[in-house]
Amino acid sequence: MLRILAIYLVCINIFSLLLFGIDKRKAKKGAFRISEKGLFLSAILGGSIGAILGMHLFHHKTRHWYFRYGLPLILAVQIVIGLFAYCK
Predict the structure, then answer these.
(1) How buried is residue 23: exposed, middle or buried, by Cβ count under 10 Å (0-12/13-18/19+)?
(2) pTM, entire model
(3) CB burial class (10 A; 0-12, 13-18, 19+) of residue 30?
(4) For the CA atoms of 7, 44, 26, 22, what is the dihedral angle to 10 degrees?
(5) Checking CA distances to 31, which of 1, 24, 52, 85 falls within 20 to 30 Å?
(6) Contact, 56 vs 62, CB < 8 A?
(7) Does residue 88 surpass a pLDDT of 80?
(8) What is the dihedral of CA 61, 64, 66, 70, to 10 degrees?
(9) Cα Rg for the chain, rounded, in angstroms?
(10) 77, 48 in Cβ contact below 8 A?
(11) Could you read off the pLDDT of 3-55 as tens digits, one per residue?
């Protein structure tokens, strides 16, 4: 079970990282963008580390306070939930 969870987390974090890169590329080209809800959803589904890395790696959404503080908050909540689940 832990192996499946680990594989899922690696995949969703890579996916989140790529979403930020794709959205940054689309922003530069003026193309149709990935919604902010979609970016946050990928983080909420477990990809918060990838989203934070993507935000900083691609310098994307770093000026938006709700990304700057929201993504680390999502990660903190996920860590707390993970600790509760692990300790039970």
Answers:
(1) buried
(2) 0.92
(3) exposed
(4) -10
(5) 52
(6) yes
(7) no
(8) 40
(9) 14
(10) no
(11) 999 999 999 999 999 999 999 999 999 999 999 999 999 999 999 999 999 99
Q: What's the angle, vertex CA 75, arms to CA 72 and CA 79, rounded to 5?
A: 140
Three-class HEC string of the chain:
CHHHHHHHHHHHHHHHHHHHHHHHHHHHHCCCCCCHHHHHHHHHHHHHHHHHHHHHHCCCCCCCHHHHCHHHHHHHHHHHHHHHHHHC
Angle, CA of 88, 43 and 16, to the nearest 5°? 125
Q: What angle do CA 6, 10, 16 make, to 5 degrees?
A: 140
* C-alpha span between 78 and 30 (Å, rounded): 34
